[in-house]
Amino acid sequence: MEDMKKLDPATHAWLEQMAPNTWVKAYFSTFPKCDLLLNNTCEVFNKYILEARELPILSMIQRIMGQLMTRFYNKQKELSEKWPGPVCPKIRKKLLKNSEFANMCFVQPAGVCIFQVQSRGFDYIVDIGNKTCDCRRWDLTGIPCNHAIACLRHERIPAEDMLPSCYSTETYSNVYAFNIMPCRDKTMWEKMNGPPVQPPVYEKKVGRPAKSRRKQPTEVQGRARPKLSKHGVIITCSWCKGENHKCWLCP
């Protein structure tokens, strides 16, 4: 943070106003079993309903319902045909990758469920009883890290047995177990004698509608796409190592 403050005081002041658990991995909660700070789930769902969002309200709901019906059916079929075993495929791949790195770990037992693991010149304390490790990968994701897998091998415990239930195919099956029932035709809907649903009033705006996003003042239009300028970057001379001038303008 001190280096950031010297480099860009405005960015440092902006980050100081935010809680550390919203952007620093060291302060993340271990409850959700996720070590990522992304909004990809929202972005993927918005892309999934992009065409439906342009429709009227009833047509939009019916389109989204049809997409979810197809998705639930495909997930049920995929689980029954392509997912053998008790663990989801992506989690199994991560376990196998961590198992390869566990070959370079040296384990020293310190007590019941407590181990000291040496890996690449660092020492880590692993508690397989509480499922914690000093690297915090096991704490945040619930997937045993390479240090934990090395300790589990020492105790002859399969790494898959230490996974939380959220990574099991049984939990995945329970999520997509129910079906979204289709609706009857509009002519068979029950009359509720409510106010009719009308589309919003169309207001024509002045000018051509914007299609491109608003660019930042520091963005420069390149040949293929916009690019960031060197705004705020301190230029260093390659000859005298001085600042704010180039080598061909060096005094």
Rough outline: flat
The largest sheet has its strands arranged as 1-2-3-4
Judged by helices, strands and strand pairing, the structural class is: alpha+beta
Q: Which residue ranges are poorly predicted, with pLDDT under 50 across at least 5 consecutive positions?
A: none
Strand fraction = 5-15%
Number of strand segments: 6
**What composes the largest sheet?**
4 strands, antiparallel
Q: Termini separation (Å)?
A: 34 Å
How are helices and strands ordered from N to C? HHHHHEEEEHHHEE
What would the average pLDDT be, to the nearest integer? Answer: 87
Rg, alpha carbons: 28 Å
Tally of helical segments = 8
**How helical, in percent, are the residues?**
25-40%
Describe what you observe in this structure.
With 251 residues, the chain is an alpha+beta fold. It has eight helices and six strands; from the N terminus they run H-H-H-H-H-E-E-E-E-H-H-H-E-E. It is flat. The mean pLDDT is 87.
Q: Brief description of this entry?
A:
The protein has helices at 2-7, 9-16, 40-48, 57-82, 89-102, 137-141, 146-154, 169-175; strands at residues 106-111, 114-119, 122-127, 132-133, 219-221, 226-228. The protein has 251 residues and is an alpha+beta fold.
Which helices and strands, and how do they pair?
Blueprint: H1 2-7, H2 9-16, H3 40-48, H4 57-82, H5 89-102, E1 106-111, E2 114-119, E3 122-127, E4 132-133, H6 137-141, H7 146-154, H8 169-175, E5 219-221, E6 226-228
Antiparallel strand pairs: 1-2, 2-3, 3-4, 5-6
Helix pairs in contact: 5-7
